[in-house]
Structure formats: structure tokens, C-alpha cells
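Section 5: illustrative case.
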């Protein structure tokens, strides 16, 4: 514990950086999501390269090596699309979240109806399903707004994460003095 207390300031520094990131996410939500999409694109691209290398290494011994080859090519293409068209990729992510939200909402309602004899207050699951469906519809109706909302969620996460890290850092500083 003393080692953590000794470097309490690193928690505070991480917290401050997280809060600064949160402020940027609130001020420039489109840029925040674009940066995340670029990181996603870089990951897809690098993953694709490694998968291609893997496919070539097992080509002589594994008859299904071509599956890895196709997977690698798909990852590379997805990575290039994300890197060169981050706006389109961000919009696609919003649409994907909208589809997920709609389907999840439908399944939550079905589950609540099926469980109504076994549990009480199944209406909460129905309400959660309705909210999921409404959220999905809103994202479909306003996908650009969805990009902003997702960036704000990331911003809220970073803000609270930063506050908690600073609080831990301060507690560790007090522990180190004791």
C-alpha cells in the first residue's frame, strides 16, 4: 500500500487528464468520436495485417488457412474505411447501436411477457424494453445527434472516472502521511 501512497500524484494526474478529456468531449463531440473511430480503424488495420501473416504461416499445414486470409482482408478493408472515412464510420456505429437498441428492447419485452407469471414487477423490464426501442428510433431519426450523444456519454464516463481517480489520489496522499 505504501508504494501506492508514494505515487498518489499519478492517480491525481490521471484524474485531471480524464477530466480534461471529458471537457473536450463535451465541447467537441464530433472530434471526440472521430478520434475514437481513427483508433478503431488503426486497430482493425493492424489486426488485419497480423491475421494475414498468420494465414500465410499456416498455409502449408492448415487446409482452412483461407478463412484467416479472408478475415485479415476484411479487417484491413474495415480499418482503411475507418481511417479514411471516420465520419461515415461514426455514422455507421450510431446505426449499429440503433439496431442493437431496437432488438434488445424487443427481446426485453418478450422476456418480460414470458416471465410475468414467475416474477413480480415485470413492468420494469417492459419499461426498459420500451426505452431501448425509443432510443433506437431516436438514433435512426437523428443519427448525427446520436454521434453527439455517444461522445457525451464518453465525456460523462471520463468526468466521473477522473473525479474518482482524484479522490483516490487524495486518500492515498493522506494515507502516505499517516
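Designed sequence:
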Amino acid at each position: 500500500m505504501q508504494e501506492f501512497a508514494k505515487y498518489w500524484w499519478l492517480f491525481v494526474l490521471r484524474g485531471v487528464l480524464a477530466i480534461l478529456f471529458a471537457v473536450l468531449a463535451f465541447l467537441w463531440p464530433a472530434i471526440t468520436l472521430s478520434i475514437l473511430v481513427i483508433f478503431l480503424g488503426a486497430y482493425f488495420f493492424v489486426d488485419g495485417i497480423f491475421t494475414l501473416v498468420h494465414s500465410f504461416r499456416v498455409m502449408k499445414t492448415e487446409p482452412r488457412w483461407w478463412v484467416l486470409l479472408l478475415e485479415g482482408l476484411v479487417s484491413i478493408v474495415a480499418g482503411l474505411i475507418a481511417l479514411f472515412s471516420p465520419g461515415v464510420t461514426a455514422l455507421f456505429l450510431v446505426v449499429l447501436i440503433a439496431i442493437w437498441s431496437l432488438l434488445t428492447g424487443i427481446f426485453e419485452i418478450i422476456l418480460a411477457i414470458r416471465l410475468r407469471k414467475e416474477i413480480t414487477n415485470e413492468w420494469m423490464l417492459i419499461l426498459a424494453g420500451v426505452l431501448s426501442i425509443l432510443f433506437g428510433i431516436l438514433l435512426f431519426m437523428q443519427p448525427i445527434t446520436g454521434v453527439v450523444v455517444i461522445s457525451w456519454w464518453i465525456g460523462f464516463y471520463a468526468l466521473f472516472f477522473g473525479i474518482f481517480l482524484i479522490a483516490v489520489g487524495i486518500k492515498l496522499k493522506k494515507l502516505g502521511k499517516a
